[in-house]
Amino acid sequence: MYWNPKYECLSAEELQQLQLERLKATVERAFLNVPHYRRAFQAKGLEPGDIRTLEDLRKLPFTTKDDLRENYPFGMFAVPMSEIVRIHSSSGTTGKPTVVGYTRRDIDVWAELMARALVCGGATRNDIIHNAYGYGLFTGGLGVHYGAERLGASVIPISGGNTKRQVMIMRDFGSTILTCTPSYALHIAEVIGEMGIDPAELKLKAGIFGAEPWSESMRREIERRLGISAVDIYGLSEVIGPGVAIECQEKNGLHIFGDHFLAEVIDPATGEPLGPGQVGELVLTSLTKEALPVIRYRTRDVTALLPGDCPCGRTGVRIARITGRTDDMLIIRGVNVFPSQVESVLLEIGGTEPHYQLIVDREGSLDTLEVQVEVSESLFSDEVRRLEDLEHRLRQELESTLGISVKVTLVEPKTIARSEGKAKRVIDRRKL
Amino acid sequence: MKIKQLSVFLENKSGRLAAVTRLLASKGINIRALSIADTSDFGILRLIVNDPQAAYRTLREGGFTVSLTEVLGVEMPDRPGGLSSVLTHLEEAGINIEYLYAFLGKGENGALVIFRVEDLDKAIEILSAKGVKLVSAENVYAL
Ligand SMILES: [Zn+2]
Q: E strand or H helix at A244, and its extent?
């Protein structure tokens, strides 16, 4: 059940020793070979020799997506182009794309990480991996592909699209593991239904889904409809691609492969590190990347470090599933609030995803937060007491999750405006 | 014996009750009884109508959150102690009353009160055994 038990189960002491050696080497290489990092270190009066302990990580400057964009396309590379064997890129839907490069050894490390991830997610060399992540500049498809080959499984490089054909191949080839985005997995389930195929005719047993945030209720839905066990995988091209972290069969958070990445969660407003359980922005530092080392890369993904050890025996830190983007963050009475936090509370209590809206206002000098929740039939009761209980429970859960006082208002269905596509979750009436 | 009651979630803002009654009127649905339980933020409108299924469909299609609940219609002598004796029977049987409200109209011989109780079947059994007159659903819808 491990691909590389030596590194996946390193003792805390050994892991920290290894991380420190690798961090020092990464900082040194970045300083020597990447002008951007040299400038950024010097601006803080730092030299590679100042990094003596893992705590010194905090002294290092952050790296942002904008830094990668400003150095478009190859300015962040730490090796000459002759050493680069692969180039991937983000889609660049919000501005210039970010470009990432890999040396031969980077590709090797990535394949190792993905092999680990696949095993962690339930794969063995006897599996037939139906890889419906997109192939191309996007890192998902080839990332999984190389990992599956490293594992020795049989990989079907089907990529996305043409879903009926996917289902036919799944049935005829006996695919046992599905890898794709969770929303595509649901779409596949729908098409299986439309084609009149019983999921039991398929040999699918597990799914490894990522590349977009998804919820616990979506997991249950996918597991029920496809009759599989589904785990969440995390990664981003700027850091390496898929395989930075993954859930094990315990499904209690994602294991970060600590011999290759250092993870921090920070307050996105202040940049200060947060403790276990506190929700903030994930920051990743690569420890072994040659072509494109990243130092304290701000992912913009919202998560929390999880306390405690996992029964599976893997050591290193775990993160909670990604619940949103820091771009959506609100600061209310000095406290960071993410709409995604509200969403997960509502999901837990209601069992489904209700329509909701946050209304932020200011009374005198005090910020107020009102959470309006549409009363669906599943939440409704003809007894006032039960509705008041619901309001009360929502308020308590929201207050303990967000750390600020909240007014909960139950509203009639369809009273919260639906915008096209993405719902508008926040109305900020504060005149700042 | 079981009467279907509609419950509708209403925000406490003007015009919502009017919207419900207008919608029902447009479909020719007649209201037999109603009560509103409200808090500072919201209210629950409870209705007995002549055609509960049609009213349920109409309100749902009109975008309201609505549920159908089974309640009991009890006819009692319209004199001091009429309600008290019914309540005593239920209390002695350990049956909790969630809420109750009086009918707008009157029964043939007395007052009509709608009960929403925890255990409907048990309440019917007890009250029948005690000789209390329960009103049939058909009679209530047709009042
Ligand atoms: Zn685990």
A: strand A241-247
Residues of chain A with pLDDT under 50: none
Q: Closest partner residue to A382 among B16, B41, B44, by Cβ?
A: B44
Half-sphere exposure of A238 (CA within 13 A, CB side): 24
According to DSSP, the β-strands at A128-131 and A154-156 are: parallel
pLDDT, one tens digit per residue, over A336-388 is 999 888 988 888 887 556 788 999 999 988 999 999 999 988 889 999 999 99
pLDDT at A416: 81
DSSP A126-174: T-EEEE-SPPSSSHHHHHHHHHHHHHT-EEE---S--HHHHHHHHHHHT
User: Of A173, A257, A242, A247, which Cα lies nearest the Cα of A206?
Assistant: A247
d(C-alpha A33, C-alpha A24), whole Å: 14
Residues in chain B with CB shorter than 8 Å from the CB of A382 are: 5, 7, 44, 46, 67, 69, 116
**pTM of the model as a whole:** 0.82
How far is A42 from A322, CA to CA, in rounded Å? 33
d(CA A240, CA A339): 28
Predicted confidence at residue B107, as pLDDT, reads 61
Q: Are A378 and A349 in contact (CB under 8 A)?
A: no
Decide if B10 and A383 are in contact by the 8 Å CB cutoff. no
